[in-house]
Amino acid sequence: MKKSRIILTLFILVKFILQYSLIDSEYELQRDEYLHLDLANHLAWGYLSVPPVTSWIAFIIKFLGNSVFWIKFFPALFGALTIFTVWKIVEELKGNLYAQVLVATGVLLSVLLRLNTLFQPNSLEILLWTLVYFSLIKYINSEKVKWRYIGAVFFGIGFLNKYNIAFLLLGAIPALLLTNQRKIFLQKHLYFAVLLALIIVLPNILWQYQNHFPVIHHMKELSESQLVNVNRFDFLKSQLLFFLGSVFVILAGFYALLMYQPFKELRFFLWMYIFTIALFLFFKAKDYYAIGLYPVYVAFGSVFLSAWFEKIKFGNILKIVSVAVVLLFFIPIYNVAFPNKSPDYILSHQEQYRKFGMLRWEDGKDHPIPQDFADMLGWKELVEKTDREYDKLSKSGKTLVLCDNYGQAGAINYYSTKGIKAVSFNADYINWFDLNEKYTNLVRIKDSPENEFEETSPLFKNSKIADSIINPFAREKGTVIFSFEGAKVNINKKIQEEIDEVKSQY
């Protein structure tokens, strides 16, 4: 086996080992993961929360047993494939083995380690952004039209995975027009490739049309509840932190695209970065939306630095120093960016986390532990207490478990030992009610208990507050479990009215 293949294989192995060792045993799955796993039980060409690719992966995970091992395997796999792709990009850019080691180290020891711990569309998204860029580089270098079609396939799959990849296209178009690569728009194969991408995404577009384009409602809701709190300065600061140890490599990549002769035909990549970041800033996007941009620029920088080191006096020393810098900068990130420390540890080292902005949540306020970590706590407690109450109520009639948010419903459906199929008026669960059953009892999970008992108890013979979530670090702390038994009215009718009201807002 060639030396380069052995080293690449070692990087891949280290990647998988790290991914399975970065979560402390106190943490459970994260809120979004529960919803994404539940998509496997409701396969469709679209959802309110995500496009369909996530559901296909969830179905594979379900087929394999739905264990935590497989839930964590696929994001780790996508991260490993991202390393493989940047390795091939360096090869395409005529970089040597050192350049490949530098880019692999930079991508391995980056924000992708955190991203790849979670079963979300983001891990596959970064891979697909990188693959589209790889296809574009291959086309520019070879002028073989097949790479347009390969890029179109990657883009189409990317669109079916997360709509955010549209920013890649919106950044690429003006960048190409500004350079001599504008000639690409005069070639018919570009439009055939666009047609291929449209064919791939068409089923999802039709689903959106048939369902009155819920993605628009989702984006409006996101803008009002989360993006409104996005600070553009914080967005830019996060861009530096994502690949902290490789910032100098990325900057070298920008310089190379501007001045390095072998990259002359790829200069539009610099403009692509500028336009794409500008679009993210204009729309006040979340900082992690832009992560897919960076792996390819780490590759550009690695190739340039490697070539430069070959020409200067202390080049061999600088090669070692460059890799060491990536490793050294990763150490403080390792200590705060991953759920590898217990909540008690974080509480006693809050200043360390605050310096990196880790305690700032989407509500714009600081909290005891990072939001993502808090989203990985309290779920088993919720399910255990819900199961207990459901078991009691089910002895007297059909019982519905109705939650306030998708995390609660998804966690109950994942962990429940009573076969509960919890639902919610939130996210995709609005479409998953089974009203063919005649419900007489209700377990109501509420984020905030205000007025719930007063409003709902008159509809039932027996009502009580059964329990609540007490984990002090969980985002769900204070969530209340209500128990309502013996309906005096038609519950199904009232639920259908509520569903119709929520859907009328789409």
Topology diagram in text:
Blueprint: H1 3-19, H2 31-38, H3 53-63, H4 68-92, H5 97-108, H6 112-115, H7 121-142, H8 146-161, H9 166-178, H10 188-210, H11 214-225, H12 232-242, H13 247-259, H14 268-282, H15 294-309, H16 315-336, H17 343-348, H18 350-355, H19 371-374, H20 379-393, E1 399-403, H21 406-415, E2 423-424, E3 441-446, H22 452-456, E4 460-468, E5 480-487, H23 491-503
Parallel strand pairs: 1-2, 1-3
Antiparallel strand pairs: 3-5, 4-5
Helix pairs in contact: 1-4, 1-5, 2-21, 4-5, 4-7, 4-15, 5-15, 5-16, 7-8, 8-10, 9-14, 13-15, 15-16, 20-21
Give the overall shape.
globular
Largest sheet: 5 strands, mixed
Output the structural class.
Answer: mainly alpha
Average residue pLDDT:
90
Tally of DSSP helical segments: 23
- Beta strands, count: 5
Oligomeric state of the chains? single chain
Strand content: 5-15%
Summarize the structure.
This protein is mostly helical and 506 residues long.
Fill in the keyword field for this structure:
506 residues, mainly alpha, 5-stranded mixed sheet, 23 helices, 6% strand, globular
Structural features, described:
There is one protein chain. The chain has helices at residues 3-19, 31-38, 53-63, 68-92, 97-108, 112-115, 121-142, 146-161, 166-178, 188-210, 214-225, 232-242, 247-259, 268-282, 294-309, 315-336, 343-348, 350-355, 371-374, 379-393, 406-415, 452-456, 491-503; strands spanning 399-403, 423-424, 441-446, 460-468, 480-487. With 506 residues, it is mainly α. Helix 1 (3-19) runs parallel beside helix 5, helix 4 (68-92) crosses helix 15 (294-309) and helix 7 (121-142) packs antiparallel against helix 8 (146-161). The relative contact order is 0.11.
